[in-house]
Each structure stands twice: as C-alpha cells, then as structure tokens.
Amino acid sequence: MSDRVELEKYKQQIANLYSARSASYDRGDWHPRIARRLVEYARLSPGQQVLDIATGTGMVALLAAQIVKMEGHVIGIDISTGMLERARQKLKASGLKNIEFQLADGEALSFRENHFDTIFCSSAMIWMSDLHRALRLWQRCLKPGGLLCFHAFADTAFVGGVVSQKILEKYDVSLSLNKPTGTTQKCYDLMDAAGFENIEIKSEPDGSYISLEQAKGMWIGDSSFPTPGQYPNPLRELSLSQRVEAKIEFDAVLDSLQTERGIWDDRTIFYTLGRKAFPKDGLASGRIISNGY
Ligand SMILES: C[S@@+](CC[C@H](N)C(=O)[O-])C[C@H]1O[C@@H](n2cnc3c(N)ncnc32)[C@H](O)[C@@H]1O
C-alpha cells in the first residue's frame, strides 16, 4: 500500500472508526490491563522522554507520565481526533503536566532523530500499513540504547477473525489481520530486520468463553469497515450473494465450535521489546527525521 492518496483514505477510515468508538473505548478492563503490562515491562524511570504511538485515549501515555515525573516528558500521538479529545479530557482530570497529545500519523513522524528513551505502541500494530518501514522509522527516533515496546496479538486470537479468514480464503480473499505479528518468531524477525537488539518477546495466554451470538457478531465480511493493514478493502471484490453465502458458512463453523461454556475466544498476547543499537563510531546525530521517511 504505497500510494499516498490511497493511504490517506485508509487512515481516514481508521480515524473515523475510532472517533466513533471513543466515548465507549475505555469501558471494560481489557485495554487498560494490556497498557499497564506494557508499561511495567518497559521499566521506565524518572526523567525519560517517551513517545506513545497510536495513543488512543492515552492509557499508556498517562501511566508513563506518572513514572517519568516532571523531569520527564510524554507525547501521545494518534490519527483520531475523537480518541485524542478523550485523552485530553483524561489528562485534564489527572492534573498531570508532563504530557501532550498530538494529531499525527505514527508512520510519518517528524521528531528529532535519537530523541526518545522509550517508544510504545499498544494495540495498534495491526493498523500500520507497512510494519517494516514503521519500525525503522521508530528506531531512528529512539536514542541509542532506547527501548521500543509494542503489544500485538497472536494469529490465533479472536475467533471471529480466525474463522472469517478461513472462510474468505475459499473466495480468494486474503485478510492480513494479526498475521504480520502472529507468532513470536514473526515479532522477533520484524524487530531484527529493523536492526533492534536485545529483543525479548513475552507471550501471555489470554482469552475467555464468549456466547455464540457474540462470536457470530465478529464476522469480518462488511467491506465498509477498514481492513487492518489493507486498502482498498479486499472484501469489495465479493458479490452480495458471495457475502451472504460466506456468512452462512461462517455461522455454521461457529455452531460447530459451540461448547457448554460457549465458544473459546483466544486472545494470546505478545509483548515485544527491543533496544536500538549504539552506533559503531560512538556518535549519534540529532537530525530532524523528515515526514514519510
Ligand atoms: C485499539 S486502539 C489502541 C489505543 C491505545 N494504544 C490503547 O492501548 O488503548 C488503536 C488506535 O490506533 C490509532 N491508529 C491507527 N493507525 C494509526 C497511525 N498510523 N498513526 C497513529 N495512530 C493510529 C487509532 O486511531 C486508534 O486510536
């Protein structure tokens, strides 16, 4: 997905989706739990400069700001104005003075090179249009020895997505979803290819039983929603009758997965950490990274 205009349309769709979800996004303990864990793994210390990419309602950024204290600083960026508005409301209520939230694309940063001690990306790797490029860009924004911490799901996560993928393959539709970060090896390889060192992947089992109705509601056959990492939506190739047929097959597979306790919805989580290498000549520049690098 390299065409800039197409990319803008894709990102606008994502921004609209999350702005519409922003009022209810903080309900439940699932996202806060992941954000807390990611911040714990980073072992931040007072005085650090932190960037939270795709900050959403600011969960990671707000936690980080409490640890880095007034000597440190946190910037949270997102493409959704609705999510940022919610983040700013929470910031006001928190009384914290060492964070700012900015409207910016995580794949087109313009921060100084070698600037941040820690960069986070929680629950948003799936939306990046080019993960390899994004990781190289984020690495350049880190100081030598700086830490990148991202959270992503296994390719076994979300029963609705996994079954949708299988059904849609029969219709020659290939959905990317969690595949790019779907195994610990894939997470490792992504970090390694971008030049990170001391890479660690913490795999944590997660999931719960959900009702058949909930599982059936997870069908990914609606082409009006953005498809993570893919634009245009590959589902637009399907005719209406193919979509109806595919949904019937999807429901039938879920019926067969039903147990007395409901349907198991795997949510295996990978927390990936890696450090930017120190330059071989011992020098680190402070150049501004140009947009879209
Ligand atoms: C599932 S939410 C995660 C929010 C937050 N990180 C958390 O852990 O709760 C995904 C967020 O990614 C944002 N997003 C998606 N693509 C982005 C991009 N290229 N740059 C910045 N934000 C992006 C969306 O707007 C949304 O707020």
Description of the structure:
The protein is of the alpha/beta class and 293 residues long. The chain has a domain at 4-157 and 176-207 and 268-276: Vaccinia Virus protein VP39 (Rossmann fold). It contains 9 helices and 9 strands. The protein has helices spanning 4-21, 30-42, 59-68, 81-94, 131-141, 159-169, 184-193, 212-216, 240-257, and strands at 49-53, 73-78, 99-103, 116-121, 142-153, 196-204, 207-210, 263-266, 269-276. The strands form 2 sheets. It has a 7-stranded mixed β-sheet with strand order 3-2-1-4-5-9-6, sandwiched between helices. The protein is globular. The relative contact order is 0.16. The chain binds S-adenosylmethionine. The site of S-adenosylmethionine (SAM) has 23 residues, from helix 1, helix 2, helix 3 and strand 2.
